Every structure is written in structure tokens, then in C-alpha cells.
Amino acid sequence: MDNNKKQQLNTYLGAIHIHSNYSDGTGNIDSISKAAKKAGLSWIIITDHNNFDIEEGFYNDVCVIKGEEISPDNANHYIALGIKSYIPPASNITKTIEEVHKQNGFGFAAHPDESDLRKNSFPPIKWLDKNIIPDGVEIWNWFSAWGDKFNDRNIFNIIYSYLFKHKLVREPARKTLEWWDLLNKNSNEIVPAISGVDAHALKIQKYLIPVTVFPYKTLFKTVTNVLFLTTPLSNNFATAKEQILRALKDGRNMIINKKNCKNIPVINIENRDEAVTCGETIKIDNQTYINIELPRTASIKILCDGLELYNLIAKTYKQLLNQTGKYRVEINVNGKGLAYTNPILVY
Ligand SMILES: [Zn+2]
Ligand SMILES: [Zn+2]
After folding, report:
1. Fewest C-beta in 10 Å: which of 60, 196, 239, 331?
2. How far is 97 from 100, CA to CA, in rounded Å?
């Protein structure tokens, strides 16, 4: 690709959907931000269940933003960002979404399609009515994906589930991706997606030595949001927060699983004049290409308005585009997800 067209993008890795000791997590802001720093993250968003009490700011060089996971009892968890004050859970999720908007916030349906086929004692918590439209979708939630596969029927299955935890988390639920595509199809705007770690660092006390399952640092090395900013992240907290939330609202992020994807793929669309990436728009001309450069050879799926246009195996790929629509890309190796882009709108 012509280097003059390339935007100077600043990329920042971050994790969303984290529970602290203000709800059912075990870490405090100092230990969580230290774990994030060790995992190479520059920003995190703590979203306690029905709680909005932590003090956000820069901690250990990590930009720590607070949101809230508004969590009614058995369904419709909502990751609310950019809100000003605590919002209590309500049985009517439409009211919750309105309340978030009233506070100038926006939100993501959390783990919308937890499996009904779980072989454990944790019942699925789903987004019950798919006609109720959130601002965005958490398309991949590490803990929820693990929970869908966690088998606690006997001790061997339990040990396997903990020891080989990363083997249990393969790809986002297809159902969720299809719903997200549909929401995008029905909207003129880009409906953004995020990944969530849903980290708690739970301490299991029933054995002789208390065991922390899934420490924060371990999960911070799994599903990650790669944020693309046009200007470097500010040292001023209020400005940095604004930059991060604005980008997430626009879908200027790619979702990767660092377990399977050590380096960040380059995925963009260019025309004669410019090149754009996730969450952006570009006008079609007769030189409109999608460019993909991966850290390794992998399966590449290119979708437009939810329909699969190309499916191939390659390390680098360039394809002329001759139809408008919302394009997004999925990358996997043998069914293990590496990267999922937010849509790019070609008009
Ligand atoms: Zn939840
Ligand atoms: Zn959660």
C-alpha cells in the first residue's frame, strides 16, 4: 500500500469488563492496575456490578476508567460507559438504556448469548429480547466463554477446565456475531463491538490453601481491545478518558486474543486518496482495496453487511472491493480466534 495514504495511528491495548472488590472481584485498583501494566495494557475499564464507587484516574501508568455493569438478577447485563452517576438495575432494560443516554453515556450488551447447554451450576445470563437494541455488543467475553465450556460434573473435568482454561475459549459465539451483524445492517451508524475479560480473580477458599482462579494478569493477556487513536493518548486523565470512550463509541478498535495473536494485524481499506481502519468510513472508487497483513498465516474471513464475501488462508492479502457496505474481518487458526475488526463503512 502507498505509505503516504497510511494514517499515523496510535495503538493502545486495553481491557474492558473488570470486577474489583467493590463488587464480586477480589482486587483493588492498585493491584488491578499493576496487573494491567505487567500485561502491557495502557488503559482498563472497571465495571463493577451495580456499583460506581471506585476513584478513576491514572494508576501505575495505566489509565483506569470506571463504568458500571448494570446487572439485574438473571439477565440483561449492560456495560454502561461514560455515565456520570450510579444507575440501579431495573427489570426493564429499555429504561436502563434510556437512563444511560440521559447521562450522556452509552452501553454494550454483556455476554448476550451464554449457552443453555452448560454442564455446570452457573446458569446462563443472557440478553433476553434481541429486539431491544443496545448501543453496542460485547462480542467476546473470556470468562463467559470459559463458563460455557466449564464442566464441573466430576473432579477430572474440573481439573481439566482449570488447567487447560485457554483451550476452552476458542471463538466468540456465532449467534452473537450474527446479532451484531444484524444490528449493523439495520443501522446507518457503525454499531461498535468490544471484548470483555470479565475478570474477578476469584479466591476459592474450600481447599487448604486458598487459590486465586484466573488472576487479573492472566486474563489481561487474553481478549484485548486494540484502540486506534489519531492523536497520542493524553497524560491528562480527563482528556485521555474522553479519547478512549470516544474511540470505543465509534468502534475504533479491533478485538484480539493475545493468547493466539502476539502481534497486532494490520487491516484497513484504502481508496485513491486515503486509508481507514475500524470504525471509520471511506468512499468507494475504482481503486478501493482491503489490505490485510497478519503476524502469521491464518484463515481470513471478509464479510460485508453480514454476508461472507471471501474466505481464504493467507498471511497477507489485498482485494479490490466493488460493492459498498459495512466490511468486517475475522481471523482464526484452526477455529481459534485471533482477531475481529469493528466494521469499516464503504459508501
Ligand atoms: Zn455479567
Ligand atoms: Zn461481569
Report:
1. 239
2. 5
The pLDDT value recorded for residue 247 is 98
- Cell for 168? 476452552
Residues by chain with Cβ below 5 Å of ion ligand 2:
69, 198
Ligand 2 geometric centre to CA of 47 (Å): 7
Count other C-beta atoms under 10 Å from residue 51's C-beta: 18
pLDDT value of residue 207: 57
Domains of the chain: 3-257 (3.20.20.140), 266-346 (2.60.40)
- Give the pLDDT confidence of 145-174 residue by residue, as tens digits: 999 999 988 888 888 888 899 999 999 999
DSSP string covering 96-107: HHHHHHHTT-EE
User: How many Cα atoms are found within 13 Å in the side-chain-facing hemisphere of 107?
Assistant: 32
Q: Which ligand is nearest to the CA of 126?
A: 1
Q: In Å, how far are 32, 40, 107, 256, 280 from 13, measured between CA atoms?
A: 15, 7, 20, 10, 19
Angle 279-281-286 from CA coordinates, rounded to 5°: 135
pTM score of the predicted model? 0.95
Give the integer Cα–Cα distance in Å for 323 and 180: 21
How far, in whole angstroms, is CA 68 from its chain's centroid?
15
pLDDT > 70 fraction of the chain, expressed in percent and rounded: 96
